Amino acid sequence: MQLSRSAQLRAPGVAKRVSRARVAVVKAAKTADGPRVAIVGITGAVGQEFLTVLKERNFPYSSIKMLASARSAGKKQEFEGVSYTVEELTENSFNDVDIALFSAGGSISKKLGPVAAKAGAIVVDNSSAFRMTEGVPLIIPEVNPEAMSHIKIGKGGAIIANPNCSTIIALMAVTPLDRVATVKRMVVSTYQAASGAGAAAMEELRQQTRDVLDGKPAQPKIFPQQYAFNLFSHNSAMDVELGYNEEEMKLVKETRKIWGKPDVRITATCVRVPVMRAHAESINLEFEKDISEAQALEALAAFPGVSIINDRTNNRFPTPLDATTKDNVFVGRVRRDISREDKRGLDLFVCGDQIKKGAALNAVQIAELLLK
């Protein structure tokens, strides 16, 4: 295949920033005819990131409501030069809300998500509460926006699920390749940062790092074992019979739902690593037909929200620091699977910010689709 000049710049051995395209953004910020927005879980890491993303993308809104538990009610929250009072989250919080961005945990979502939808709000939920619920769209805007095309503001309440962070990061990299050669099997190993377990876990990593460097014993609180200078199996619940934890099974089940391919073969190993923010994933793919490294890079370069760092000469590939606070998912180490005799296998390495694209940004992009 003859590559274009731009594609040649992205061939193996060359690091190049590519494809910073985003889902279309409605430019407006605060406006009288914008939707009425509520953020549920405003004091958490993702809740705070919602504010950052809304501001960065100039998301239009006519009013914004900050919601949290009773213990946080009354606190002040600054946003775009205005001081808001955090309100207690109750069943009556959604009577004047068009879009509710939820990030307060699965139990809260299960209890109040349907309440909000019944009140007419469209809930974009960041928990796992509704991801596998039949009839609830599970959306990555760059991947399957058509699955939520029937949901619009003013046409009744609804719930839309935000996928797990590891699933989002993986499918941003793998979907463009699937569209070229169709993925038959995917093997994923994740290296997941403290951000995935929330602000308290991030602080635990900071404190343990200080303690260990000072010669003091680490004091595990969030995790059952030392986190600093260590790594361990992901801390989600383990299925003792299967030997897979919940995080690993989310990758399997969510990918099948998002792609609409119930039979695609997926296996995963998820590990928590002492990185502050941004997850990494090593992915091995088997395809239905031949796919070259050049074809893969061409497809990745054309996909919105993906950037490539693939400099073999200088051993320069994506790192969590490259992805930290960035919108895009970074892909590199694109190479032939040499364990196969055919040309139907590739390996790649992927990094994405768990709080950004893995949570808040994806949810806000879903909200943007509601405005079209």
Question: Describe it for me?
Answer:
- There is one protein chain.
- With 372 residues, this protein is an alpha/beta fold.
- The protein folds into 2 domains: 5-17 and 166-355, Dihydrodipicolinate Reductase, domain 2, CATH 3.30.360.10; 36-162 and 360-370, 3-Layer(aba) Sandwich (Rossmann fold), CATH 3.40.50.
- Helices cover 28% and strands 23% of the residues.
- The protein has 9 helices and 17 strands.
- Strands 10-13-9-14-17-16-15 form a 7-stranded mixed sheet. A 6-stranded parallel sheet has the order 5-2-1-6-7-8, sandwiched between helices. It has a two-stranded antiparallel ribbon with strand order 3-4.
- Helix 4 crosses helix 6 (246-259), helix 4 crosses helix 7 and helix 4 packs across helix 9.
- The model is unreliable at 1-28 (pLDDT under 50).
In short:
Residues 36-151 form the Semialdehyde dehydrogenase NAD-binding domain. The protein is α/β, with parallel strands linked by helices.
How many DSSP helices?
Answer: 9
Name the CATH architecture of the largest domain.
2-Layer Sandwich
In total, how many domains does the architecture comprise? 2
Strand order of the largest sheet: 10-13-9-14-17-16-15
Q: How confident is the prediction overall: mean pLDDT?
A: 92
Q: What amount of the residues lies in strands?
A: 15-25%
User: Shape from CA axes?
Assistant: globular
Could you spell the SSE succession in H and E letters? HEHEEEEEHEEHEHEEEHEEHEHEEH
Give the biggest beta sheet: 7 strands, mixed
Q: Radius of gyration in whole Å, from Cα? A: 21 Å
How far apart are the termini? 38 Å
